[in-house]
Amino acid sequence: MNNCNKGNHDLIEIFGASSLNPIDETVVRWCKNCGGVVVDQDFDGRTNPGEFRKMQLPNNDETLLRAYDLGWVDCIVGDDVRSSDQSSEEILKRIKDMETLIISGFPGIGKTYFKENSYKKNVSDSDSSKFSWIEEGVRHPDFPQNYIDHIKENIGKTDIILVSSHKIVRDALRDNEILFTLVYPKRELKQEYLERFKSRGNNESFVKMLDENWDKFIDEMENQKGCATILLSK
Fold first, then answer.
1. Does residue 57 fall inside a structural domain?
2. What is the pTM of this model?
3. pLDDT at residue 221 is higher than 80
4. Residue 229 CA: distances (Å) to CA of 76, 94, 143, 179, 191
5. Do β-strands 73-77 and 227-232 pair in parallel, antiparallel, or remain unpaired?
6. Mean per-residue pLDDT for 68-97?
7. pLDDT confidence of 195, banded at 50, 70, 90?
8. Residue at 149 is within a domain
9. Rounded distance, CA 143 to CA 159, Å?
């Protein structure tokens, strides 16, 4: 394992994917000190460090984090410093100081499954619809700030908060200087995700909305600032 440039690696688990064997798990860990990423194998309570990918340290001149082709996760990247109003060092410091990992996840990526099966972490799934509507057809006048306030109140009380991926929410997170990780699928996975929405019981209007706006949503996420990004290949 490559040495941390600030002493010892301080690793936190950011994602885990179980195989058919419930005691065998592929785990992505990230160093809060240097931003390095390693992909380990956890088997029966033991860790084989770097079994799937050795520790890779980031190039701070370009991105905060980068890991290539992990199968279900294609890459982990941070804001491109060339298009950001903050230096990579400033963003790294903010990530290091975070008490809670905030994940803004696109529909269908597995947020509910992650919450229900993340036995190692305390995960909160924060549904924005509880804050965006007063009643059916009537928008809440305080949205999205009331939702942001709710997220702020839970930072430090849980390990991970899963939040909406709506653009208005992402921009509000950025404007409130809350660093988050945006997770969304590759553009070419459109048909796979539309079938996923249908099979999990989403109504026809929801599926139609995603179908008609897919490229627009992906474009917006590709250009999102103020966050780290995980691009899913499945």
1. no
2. 0.64
3. yes
4. 6, 15, 24, 11, 22
5. antiparallel
6. 41
7. very high
8. yes
9. 24
With CA atoms as reference, report the closest residue to 145 among 175, 190, 120, 119: 175
Q: Does residue 57 sit in helix, strand or coil? A: coil
Longest CA–CA separation in the chain, Å: 55
Confirm whether 68 is domain-assigned: no
Question: E strands along the chain, which residues?
Answer: 11-18, 24-31, 37-43, 46-56, 73-77, 101-105, 123-125, 133-135, 138-139, 160-163, 180-185, 227-232
CATH number, domain of 217, equals 3.40.50.300
CA 5, chain centre distance (Å)? 25
Distance CA 83, CA 61 (A): 12
Q: What does the DSSP assignment read for 90-155?
A: HHHHHHHH-SSEEEEE-TTSSHHHHHHH-TTS-EEE--THHHHEEETTEE-TTTTHHHHHHHHHHB
Number of domains in the chain: 1
> CA-based Rg of the chain, rounded to a whole angstrom?
18
Q: Is 50 exceeded by the pLDDT of residue 22?
A: yes
24-31 and 37-43: which strand pairing? Answer: antiparallel
Structure tokens, 135: 């009643």
Considering only CA atoms, which of 170, 169, 167, 161 is closest in space to residue 121? 161
Bridge partner residues of 77 (DSSP): 229
Residue with tokens 């079994």, as numbered in its chain: 51
Q: Which domain holds residue 164?
A: 98-232
Q: Are 131 and 144 in contact (CB under 8 A)?
A: yes
Question: Does residue 103 sit within a domain?
Answer: yes
